[in-house]
Amino acid sequence: MLEGFMAQGKSTNILQSRETLESAIKLLWGLALLTLPVTSFRWFPGLGESTLVRPLALYPLAILLPLLLIQAWRRKISLTFSGAFIALGVFVLYAFFSSSIGALIDPIPLRGQTYDGRVIRALVTLFIGGAFFVAAVWMNNDEADLRFTVKWIFAGLCVDLVWSGLQAITFYTGLLEKEMVTHWQLAFSMRELVRTNRISGLAYEPAWLAGQLATIFFPFLFAAVLTKFRLTSLTWLEPALLALSTLVLFATYSRGGLLITIGVSGLMTLIFGRDILRGIWAWYIKGFKEKRFTSFIFRLSIIVALIGVIAGAFLFLSQKNYFRRLWEVNAESLNEYIVDINAGARGAYTVGALSAYSEYPLTGVGLGGSGFYIYQNLPDWALTTVPEIAKQLDPANKLYPNPKNLYVRLLAETGLIGFFLFIAFQLYLLGETLSLYRRGPAWARFAAIAGVFAWVAIALYNFTQDSLTTPNIWIVPGIMAGIAVNLSNKEVS
C-alpha cells in the first residue's frame, strides 16, 4: 500500500511539474507579446550605441525557444513544421552563400567596420527575426492559441497607448515636466522624448510606433470590427482600442505609417467588407426614399460629420511643417521634391546601395555589406542639398550607412536570386493566410483578414525600413502560418 501511495504521489508531482512548465511556456510567450512595443531596450549587454533595434521581447523569447525544444526532445509536446520553414531556410542558406561571395570581394573597411563584422552582425539579426517567426508558428495551433496570442498583443497595445497618452499630456498640457518624463523614458529606452512633440510611444521614434500600429495592432483591431469577432465579453473593447490607436497614429505625424494604414484599411474594406458596404449603402439610400424630414436630416448630418472629421484630420496634420511639405510643392524636379519633403537622405542611400546591386546583380555583395558601397556612390544632387549627407560624410562621423529600404538592401546584398527567394517566402505566407479565409470557422476568417491586412502593410512598410530584426515583419505572418498548417493537418487526418 505504501508503494501505491508513493507511486501515486510521484505521478501527481510529474503532472504538476508538467502543468507548471506548460504555464511557464504560455507566460513567456505572453510576455514576449506584451513587450513588443519596446523596440530599443536600453539594457542589452555587448551592443554599441549605434545598435538601435533592441526588442525587449527578445528576453522572454530567448528562454521560450529552448524550453520548447527541450519539451519536444522529451516528446512532451509536438512542434509544428510549416512549409514556410523550408522557404525561409532556403533564403537563409543563400544569404550564407552570398556572404561568402562578398568575402571574396572583401571591401575596404569603413570607419572601423570590417566586412566580416558586418556579416556576422547581419546574420545574427536575421536569426533573431527568424526566431520571432518560428516562435509565432509553434505557439499558434488553434482558436484557443489565437485568442491567447491576440489578447496579449492587445495588452501590449494598452500599455503602449497609456505611455503615448502620458507623452501627449507632457507635450500639450504642461501638467508634467518634459525633463522628468524624459528621465522616465531613458530608464528603458535608447532615446529621449522626441523634441518635435511627436508621439513615439514605447518605440524608438514616431515612425517605428506607426509601423507597429500598421503591421501588428491595426490588423487584428480592424478584423475584429469588420467581422464582429470578439475576444472577450466586452464588445466595445476592440472598437475603442481602434479609435484610440487611430488618434495615436495621427499624433505620430508619420507620413508612411498614416498612408500605409489608411490605404490598407480602405483596400481591406473593399476586398472583405463589400457586403457591409452594400448594407450601409442600402440603409443610407432607404432613408431618402422614405421622404421623412428627420431621416433626411440625419443622413445629411452623417455626410457633414464625415467631411468634418476629414477636414479636422487634415488641419491637425498640417500643423507640422514636416507633414505639410507633402502638398506645398516648391520644387522643379523629382530630386528637388524628394529633398524638399525631407526624404533626400533616404533617397540618396537607396541610390548608393543600388550601385552595389548593379556591380553584382546575381549574388549581391553579402548580407550586411551594402554600406561599404553607399558613400562612394551617392548621387551628385545629394552632396550639396542634403544636410544629413554632409554630416554623414564628416570624417569624424562613425556611423555605418544603411539603404533604408529592405528590398533595395536585399537586391544589393543577396542579388536577384536572394531577392526572389525572399519574395517567394512572402508569397508562400500570403497563400497560407488566404487559405484560412476559405475555411468555415468565424475565427479563421477573422485571422485571415488580420493576416492579409498585416501582409500588405508589411510589404509596404519594408519600403521604409531595412532591418531584419524588427518583430513587426515576423510575428503576424508566423501566427498565420502556424494556424494554417495545423488546420490543414486536421483536415487531412
Question: Topology, please?
Answer:
Blueprint (H helix, E strand, L loop, with lengths): L1 H33 L23 H16 L9 H23 L9 H24 L4 H30 L5 H9 L19 H22 L9 H16 L2 H18 L1 H16 L3 H25 L3 H4 L9 H7 L3 H16 L11 H4 L5 H6 L1 H6 L13 H32 L4 H20 L13 H18 L1
Q: How much is the radius of gyration in Å?
A: 25 Å
Q: How is the biggest beta sheet arranged? A: none
Globally, the shape reads globular
Order of helices and strands: HHHHHHHHHHHHHHHHHHHH
The helix content is 55-70%
Number of strands: 0
Please give the count of helices: 20
Mean pLDDT: 87
User: What would you call the structural class?
Assistant: mainly alpha
- Flag low-confidence runs: none
Strand fraction equals under 5%
How far the N terminus sits from the C terminus, by CA atoms, comes to 43 Å
Tally of structural domains: 1
Describe the protein's architecture and organization.
It is a single chain. With 493 residues, this protein is mainly α. The protein has one domain (24-40, 48-329, 403-492). It has 20 helices and no strands. The chain has helices at residues 2-34, 58-73, 83-105, 115-138, 143-172, 178-186, 206-227, 237-252, 255-272, 274-289, 293-317, 321-324, 334-340, 344-359, 371-374, 380-385, 387-392, 406-437, 442-461, 475-492. Helix 19 packs antiparallel against helix 20. It is globular and about 75 Å long.
Keywords summarizing the entry:
493 residues
Summary, kept brief:
Helices cover 70% and strands 0% of the residues.
